[in-house]
């Protein structure tokens, strides 16, 4: 049975998502703040994470970045109320596999959950987002060292 972590501080939404997922045969755990979500995500053996962005403690973006930096490759679907392109792009660059803006229909979330689980099962190593990232930091060759040649030849 697939295990899904629901990181969501709004009880109503967490309960709504949990109820739907359980009815669809998933095992669920709710984390209602960012620190708990990060802990559970690292240690809980989850197959997928549904991650709200607006969380107490670490926000969802911070949780996500931390997980990806620690090479936790669990698929993540980001939930955000902030319906803006900038936030979405930030979420995807931070390593989200998919995202949804609130309010959303449960059917759509479920379809995305299933898709991500299938994709993860097929190609666990592939993260589309890791490719083609521009290298923003050019290598800086070390500047010339202070020359030692002008040593005073005092007598
Ligand atoms: Ca929230």
Task: List how many beta strands DSSP finds.
Answer: 5
Q: What class, by secondary structure content?
A: alpha/beta
Intertermini distance: 86 Å
Radius of gyration: 22 Å
Overall 3D form:
globular
* CATH H-level superfamily: Response regulator
Taken in chain order, the helices and strands follow as EHEHEHEHEH
Share of helical residues: 25-40%
SS strand fraction: 15-25%
Number of helices: 5
Strand count, sense and barrel status of the largest sheet are: 5 strands, parallel
Strand order of the largest sheet: 2-1-3-4-5
- The domain count comes to 1
Would you tell me which CATH topology applies? Rossmann fold
- Average pLDDT works out at 82
| CATH class designation | Alpha Beta
Give every kind of bound small molecule, once each. calcium ion
CATH architecture: 3-Layer(aba) Sandwich
Q: What tags apply to this protein structure?
A:
155 residues, alpha/beta, Rossmann fold, 38% helix, 15% strand, globular, binds calcium ion
How would you summarize what this structure contains?
With 155 residues, the chain is of the alpha/beta class.
Descriptive report:
The chain is of the alpha/beta class and 155 residues long. The protein is globular and about 30 Å long. The chain has helices spanning 11-23, 34-43, 60-69, 85-93, 106-122, and strands at residues 3-7, 27-31, 48-52, 76-80, 98-101. It contains five helices and five strands, in the order βαβαβαβαβα. The protein starts with a strand and ends in a 33-residue tail after the last helix. It has a single domain, classed as Response regulator (Rossmann fold). Helix 2 packs parallel to helix 3. Calcium ion binds next to loops.
């Amino acid at each position: 049975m697939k295990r899904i972590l629901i990181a969501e501080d709004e009880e109503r939404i967490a309960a709504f998502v949990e109820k739907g997922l359980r009815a669809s045969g998933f095992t669920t755990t709710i984390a209602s703040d960012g620190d708990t979500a990060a802990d559970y995500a690292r240690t809980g053996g989850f197959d997928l994470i549904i991650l709200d962005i607006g969380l107490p403690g670490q926000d969802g973006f911070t949780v996500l970045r931390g997980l990806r930096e620690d090479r936790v490759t669990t698929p993540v679907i980001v939930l955000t109320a902030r319906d803006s392109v900038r936030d979405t792009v930030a979420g995807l660059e931070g390593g989200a596999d998919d995202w949804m803006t609130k309010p959303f229909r449960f059917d759509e979330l479920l379809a995305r959950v299933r898709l991500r689980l299938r994709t993860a099962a097929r190609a666990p190593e592939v993260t589309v987002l890791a490719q083609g990232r521009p290298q923003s930091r050019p290598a800086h060759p070390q500047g010339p060292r202070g020359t030692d040649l002008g040593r005073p030849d005092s007598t």
